[in-house]
Specification:
single chain; about 475 residues; mainly beta; four-stranded mixed beta sheet; 40 strands; disordered N terminus
Length: about 475
């Protein structure tokens, strides 16, 4: 039985040797092909010099493949990544001698959009990108394929929107652009026609009207003003006359302020002033002390002159000055209080000024209770410590500070880190800030990071920075995104 088994094994071995090597199972390797990026495209494969067809998941060992990347409309092929042996533009050559991973990168095409304003008028352009918020339009900007760009033309005061030229057309203030190629549009603005200002003078008196523009000095009025101009009319009566009121587009005797949004007509009335009547102002001094009372305008100097006549309607200010050793206690009668007495003379008016003799002066030498307490001993300054790690939120590092030592902590600090710039690694200042803490106080200091620091964090998720400054211990802090 054993001889039969040996003979059978020998026959099987001889048969295996007789089978050609090409008939034995060939080794196959997998091709992991993927597409990536913001754009769209396809990739196909050609075996040797054969046609390009859909790529297989596996190929026999030694197969020579050429991969071809083709971008769709609005996209462009950027590069190959992975196990390409050689690359030439959109073609990637690979020999299947192991499992391969290859990635074709596509991006959306971008097109330049140029927007500008022209014309005799003034205006601005506001842009909305893909339904976002309206912001001032850049003069020239590149946008991805099929971006929806809404452009709104807004005229300045005194101007009006006329029309669009270029890839925007018509007289509507809003233009919608779909970016599928380079575009340009011009908004034309024109000056609006000026409006007339007619000013008439009436009444028994004499006077004139001048104009004040936006808080400037009063000047002779113009016959016409641009739309939206703010004009304040200022009446100026001649001697012996008085301004009594406005008629037309201003009424009453108050301020006349116009916005030139149409033609305006205003009449200013000046009448002769009536002869003024005079009344007597008398001052009486009272109390245990002494002092003087004077007037503005001049007339009262009491002292010696404690009564004077003033025209009706005059505004007279009385000022009381106590003599040495006395205190002014206040006015009574037509005025009250210890401040200046302001009286409008419309009838005979009486005022009493009271002065009080001061008690003997008390000093620190005669009364120790009046002496100030001695100054407190000086307090040392504290030093702020920064926690070894800090989170970064919304582009700001959240540094945790603790004030240590005998006193308050106050100073400034800066963060520096080693970052790549221009192909070299440099130590750059990435944030600055100042602080003020009470003794033992803890607080979080938020520092806005520089753009290079935010880019490094976005890539690596963490960044070591050195802390230096005044009033703070030098240390290292780890920033975490």
């Amino acid at each position: 039985m054993k001889r039969h088994s040996f003979a059978l094994s020998l026959v099987i071995a001889l048969i295996a040797l007789a089978i050609p090597a090409s008939a034995q199972a060939a080794t196959e390797f997998s091709l992991d092909l993927s597409l990536a990026g913001s754009g769209e495209g396809t990739a196909s494969c050609a075996v040797g010099a054969g046609p390009f067809e859909a790529c297989e998941a596996e190929y026999p060992e030694g197969t020579q493949l050429t991969l071809l990347a083709e971008a769709e409309a609005g996209s462009e092929f950027l590069e190959w990544q992975g196990d390409c042996d050689t690359t030439s533009g959109p073609e990637c050559e690979v020999t299947m001698n192991a499992d391969k991973q290859i990635e074709a990168i596509f991006s959306l095409e971008e097109f330049e959009v140029t927007l500008e304003t022209q014309g005799s008028g003034e205006g601005i352009l506001e842009c909305q990108v893909n339904g976002g918020s309206f912001e001032p339009c850049p003069e020239s900007e590149s946008y991805p394929w099929e971006t929806e760009l809404r452009v709104f033309a807004e005229a300045e005061i005194g101007s009006e929107f006329a029309e669009w030229e270029g890839d925007c057309a018509g007289i509507e203030v809003e233009c919608v652009l779909i970016v599928e190629e380079a575009l340009s549009a011009t908004a034309l603005f024109a000056l609006e026609p000026p409006f007339e200002l007619a000013i008439a003078i009436a009444g028994s008196g004499e006077g004139e009207v001048s104009c004040e523009l936006e808080g400037g000095e009063a000047e002779p009025c113009e016959a016409e003003y641009e739309e939206g101009t703010e004009v304040a009319l200022v009446p100026q009566a001649e001697a012996g006359s008085e301004f009594t009121g406005w008629e037309g587009d201003c009424t009453g005797a108050g301020a006349c302020e116009l916005v030139m949004d149409e033609d305006k007509e205003v009449t200013a009335t000046f009448d002769l002033e009536p002869e003024p009547e005079e009344f007597t102002l008398s001052v009486t001094k009272a109390g245990t002390g002494s002092g003087t009372v004077t007037s503005s305008p001049a007339g009262i100097d009491c002292g010696s002159t404690c009564e004077a006549s003033f025209e009706e309607g005059s505004e007279v200010t009385l000022t009381a000055t106590p003599a040495t050793g006395s205190t002014f206690a206040g006015f009574s009668g037509a005025c009250t209080g210890t401040g200046a007495c302001k009286a409008t003379i419309e009838e005979d008016t009486a005022v009493t000024a009271t002065f009080t003799a001061n008690p003997p002066e008390r000093t620190c030498a005669t009364d120790p209770s009046l002496c100030p307490p001695p100054p407190p001993p000086p307090v040392g300054e504290g030093v702020a410590k920064v926690a070894p790690s800090a989170k970064v939120k919304s582009g700001k590092a959240q540094l945790k500070l603790t004030c240590t030592g005998e006193g308050a902590c106050k100073g400034s600090l800066k963060l520096s880190a080693k970052l790549k710039q221009g192909g070299k690694t440099k130590s750059l200042v990435i944030a600055k800030g100042s602080f003020s803490l009470a003794k033992g106080q803890k607080a979080t200091l938020k520092l806005k990071l520089s753009a290079p620091a935010k880019q490094a964090l976005a890539k690596n998720r963490s960044l070591k920075a050195k802390v230096k400054g005044s009033g703070v211990l030098a240390s290292t802090v780890k920033l975490k995104a």
